[in-house]
Design a protein that fits this description.
The complex is a heterodimer of chains A (about 220) and B (about 240).
Chain A (H helix, E strand, L loop, with lengths): L7 H5 L2 H33 L4 H16 L2 H13 L7 H26 L3 H9 L4 H16 L1 H14 L12 H12 L2 H30 L3
Helix pairs in contact in A: 2-3, 2-5, 2-8, 2-9, 2-10, 3-5, 4-5, 5-8, 6-7, 8-10, 9-10
Chain B lengths: L1 E10 L2 E11 L4 E6 L5 H8 L7 E6 L2 E2 L7 H5 L2 E4 L11 H11 L5 H14 L15 H13 L5 E5 L7 H16 L3 E5 L3 H7 L2 E6 L2 E6 L1 H6 L4 H10 L1
Subcellular location (chain B): Cell membrane
GO molecular function (chain B): ABC-type amino acid transporter activity; ATP binding; ATP hydrolysis activity
Protein name (chain B): Amino acid ABC transporter ATP-binding protein, PAAT family
């Protein structure tokens, strides 16, 4: 029967450690997002490249990122490449895995966003003497990032949640890893993971709220 | 001076320009009239190298536009073009729309570019709209902004591609007034237009295009008063 006694105070005493873990989780998520956006922009440009092999590389990346489990991607970034003698820390592997996933999904979002921007915008820029690159950078990119802003917010939330997969490659300094270690120490399983769940929830809520405020500031047109 | 010599241009199997010869001198205003598909808009995009050509030459101030060695980005700084669809950059304010190219292409400082931008926008009557976003403007205002944007590069030539065709009728006048003002200031202009009264009043010469051929060119009095070509007569009768 149900004879579990909640001991919240014992779990709550571990809150500072868990918040430290949450900070690491945010670090991984933010880094993976920043690098992911840059890579996604590169992939988006490559997918429109006249050079077929470059298009193929970009397409393959997006295909793998979107059509395999994130867990597989993180696993490969750790144990997979370890087979070739490359040994990365769990932090690095997790970061690579999530970044790979972010870049793939974001590239697909950017591709869709790009379709919403008429070619005449580039034409207008070119007719003012801008190079292809300048027109892309100053005219297309800002508009593309606006159209893709909501999907980017979603991906950021997803990046935070994906950090929990880090435990599979030995990550123990992020929120999920810390919680798992504390559980092994105290066996306050329900309480600890419930707190972790609440922290995850609050983080993602803050992200969506922050994104909304940022959007209002950035996009005044 | 813009010199066009036996210019041929095709889109796939469709030949849209069949040997055009036209010279436009400094300070001259040439308007091109003609039916849809006569090749008049395509000619403009060939002049600033936005479209490749099949054969012939376009020479602007001695520089052959379609030569491989020509730096089109530099050349386009001399040739402003305004399209039927004004193509405002929606993410930038009116002033930023106008200052973007002077800053990024000419390398002007923000302050220098803004001084030019404010001057050009005031010139076209948008001095009060500097920090507005284009979506808040009417079509006529956006088109005037596009004109100011092109003028901010201090071009030697301006090409206007049916700039009033997409506008509501009551907004056409303000844009045509802007073009008239530029013509009076001595800007060298080639205007593709369906506004016959404008062509008659403003141009030094009017060219009539028919199916990729320049059927006739002459002074406005002659083209509108005494057209020589059968097709010109038919066209003018149909638009009256």
């Amino acid at each position: 029967m149900f004879d579990y006694t909640f001991q919240w105070s014992q779990a709550m005493a571990r809150l500072p450690q868990m918040l430290d873990g949450a900070a690491t989780t945010m670090e991984v998520a933010i880094l993976s997002m920043l690098i992911g956006i840059v890579l996604a922009i590169v992939l988006t440009v490559l997918r429109r490249s006249p050079v077929a092999p470059l298009r193929a590389i970009a397409r393959t990346w997006v295909e793998i990122a979107r059509n395999t489990p994130a867990l597989f991607q993180i696993y490969m970034a750790h144990f997979g490449i370890a087979s070739f003698g490359i040994h990365l820390s769990p932090f690095t592997s997790l970061l690579i895995g999530i970044t790979f996933n972010n870049a793939g999904y974001l590239a697909e979002n950017f591709r869709g966003a790009l379709k919403a921007i008429p070619d005449t915008q580039i034409r207008a820029g070119r007719s003012l003497g801008m190079s292809e690159m300048q027109a892309f950078r100053h005219i297309v990119l800002p508009q593309m990032l606006r159209v893709a802003f909501l999907p980017m917010t979603n991906q950021m939330v997803w990046a935070v949640l994906m950090t929990s997969l880090g435990v599979t490659v030995g990550m123990n300094s992020d929120l999920y890893g810390v919680t798992q270690d504390l559980n092994a120490l105290t066996f306050r399983t329900f309480e600890l993971f419930a707190i972790a769940g609440v922290i995850f929830y609050l983080i993602t809520k803050l992200i969506t709220l922050g994104a909304r405020l940022l959007a209002a500031r950035l996009f005044r047109y | 001076m813009i010199e066009i010599q036996s210019l041929h241009k095709s889109f796939g199997p469709l030949e849209v320009l069949k040997g055009i010869d036209l010279t436009v001198n400094k300070g001259e205003v040439v308007t091109i009239i003609g039916g849809s598909g006569s090749g008049k808009s395509t000619l403009l995009t060939c002049i600033n190298g936005l479209e490749p050509i099949a054969s012939g030459k376009v020479i602007v101030d001695g520089i052959e536009v379609h030569a491989k060695s020509t730096n089109l980005n530099t050349l386009r700084q001399k040739i402003g073009i305004v399209f039927q669809q004004w193509n405002a950059f929606p993410h930038l304010t009116v002033l930023e729309n106008v200052t973007l190219a002077p800053r990024k292409v000419l390398g002007l400082s923000k302050a220098e570019a803004e001084a030019i931008g404010e001057k050009q926008l005031s010139h076209v009557g948008l001095g009060a709209k500097l920090s507005t976003y284009p979506t808040m403007l009417s079509g006529g205002q956006q088109q005037r902004m596009a004109i100011a944007r092109a003028l901010a590069m201090s071009p030697d030539y301006m090409l206007f591609d049916e700039v009033t065709s997409a506008l509501d009728p009551q907004l056409v006048g303000e844009v045509l007034e802007t073009l008239k003002m530029l013509a009076e200031e001595g800007m060298t202009m080639i205007c593709v237009t369906h506004e016959m009264a404008f062509a008659r009043d403003v141009s030094h010469r009017v060219a009539y295009f028919h199916r990729g051929v320049m059927a006739e060119i002459g002074a406005p009095e002659q083209i509108f008063g005494d057209p020589q070509h059968e097709e010109t007569r038919k066209f003018l009768a149909s638009v009256r």
